């Protein structure tokens, strides 16, 4: 096939989606090991993550040497997923896209599982590689594959990788059962405690905080290369579904022309696709570090404090005088200031850490939050912008978002709320967020325009 210039058009990138019957089976390990193993072989490979996850894409980037993005089948229609996947592969000059699923292959939002890894695989036309934790099974290792085929007959199943096998004999029994059931088994990873990733309350410890990430990734790649038939696995990859030019990605507008972005270990949860969308619309993004006591750029007309772990760094944030003065100056000059989750807590008056100590925050919103009284809040959110908000949506416009935190709200003061909200099943939720002038935020992580 020729391009408009008459030169041969390169073939479509290929890819695999790595899924599992449940969380904890080893998807992240297999994804990272495969990304690093392919990179070490000189192949141009990039990663992507199914659903709302900020941590895994940073590990993908470390393993592949190329940025990773989120592809969310709950918040993004199929045409947008195809466009974003194709754009990402092209931008990274990747010939192979390795997509990591979330939870179990069929798990998604209530009530019907929409947004699952299987739905994403179908939208992108990618084969699914199922990671099976075989630690407590042998011949029964074939059951998840047979069940997935029965429940989702239109899904392309590449085959399986067995994880946490106990001996060569154990691995052989499980692999024979998988092959006898009509599925490819590409190999078995033996149980190795050294290949476990450390975690904390919101998931894995961030990639930048891993004590020796490069050595871990190389060890995982070597283990996978020794255990799996990589040429056979690569041959099972399929071409990405082509994008429809009539279905371009839907983008949130940038909050300003010059955006100061908080970025460090306390404020790491900004979606790569969102930042890329803002740049594509002409915005300039200028990172700064509150933990290093840096202030936002003085000529920024917007400041974005994304989510992260301010509760782990609350004393340093409370003592960051230049950061505090710069944020207050930005608000005083009328810059748009937006905080999500951890950023929202930082815009408040005080944050109580897990030990019960209170730390003064920026005082730009009438908000007190606490980690001493932990309470899990988790789920997708449908949002409707309230009057006077202006950004990220005009009054009445809808947005897709998610919420995931353990903080409790002790007090939200007398200020306009930001969003009316429902959960994924359309059950009403209390109004979210606070706004004081052009300073606003909420616990919702915005994904994009509403569906």
From TrEMBL:
Q: Give the enzyme's EC designation.
A: 6.3.5.9
Q: Enumerate the catalysed reactions.
A: hydrogenobyrinate + 2 L-glutamine + 2 ATP + 2 H2O = hydrogenobyrinate a,c-diamide + 2 L-glutamate + 2 ADP + 2 phosphate + 2 H(+)
Q: Which cofactor does it need?
A: Mg(2+)
Which pathway does the UniProt entry assign to this protein?
Cofactor biosynthesis; adenosylcobalamin biosynthesis; cob(II)yrinate a,c-diamide from precorrin-2 (aerobic route): step 9/10
Q: Which GO terms describe its molecular function?
A: ATP binding; cobyrinic acid a,c-diamide synthase activity; hydrogenobyrinic acid a,c-diamide synthase (glutamine-hydrolysing) activity
Indicate the annotated site residue(s) for Increases nucleophilicity of active site Cys. 445
Instruction: Describe the location of the CobQ/CobB/MinD/ParA nucleotide binding domain by residue ranges.
Output: 17-202
Q: Name its GO BP terms in alphabetical order.
A: cobalamin biosynthetic process
Keyword Phosphoprotein appears in the UniProt entry: no
Q: Which residues form a coiled coil?
A: none
* Keyword vocabulary terms for this entry: ATP-binding, Cobalamin biosynthesis, Glutamine amidotransferase, Ligase, Magnesium, Nucleotide-binding
Catalytic site: 341
Which ranges carry the CobB/CobQ-like glutamine amidotransferase domain? 258-447
> By its UniProt entry, which InterPro entries does this protein fall under?
CbiA/CobB_synth, Class_I_gatase-like, CobQ/CobB/MinD/ParA_Nub-bd_dom, GATase_3, P-loop_NTPase
Q: What is known of its domains?
A: Comprises of two domains. The C-terminal domain contains the binding site for glutamine and catalyzes the hydrolysis of this substrate to glutamate and ammonia. The N-terminal domain is anticipated to bind ATP and hydrogenobyrinate and catalyzes the ultimate synthesis of the diamide product. The ammonia produced via the glutaminase domain is probably translocated to the adjacent domain via a molecular tunnel, where it reacts with an activated intermediate.
Q: What does this protein do?
A: Catalyzes the ATP-dependent amidation of the two carboxylate groups at positions a and c of hydrogenobyrinate, using either L-glutamine or ammonia as the nitrogen source.
The family annotation for this protein states: Belongs to the CobB/CbiA family.
Protein name as annotated: Hydrogenobyrinate a,c-diamide synthase
Which species is listed as the source? Albimonas donghaensis
Give the encoding gene's name: cobB
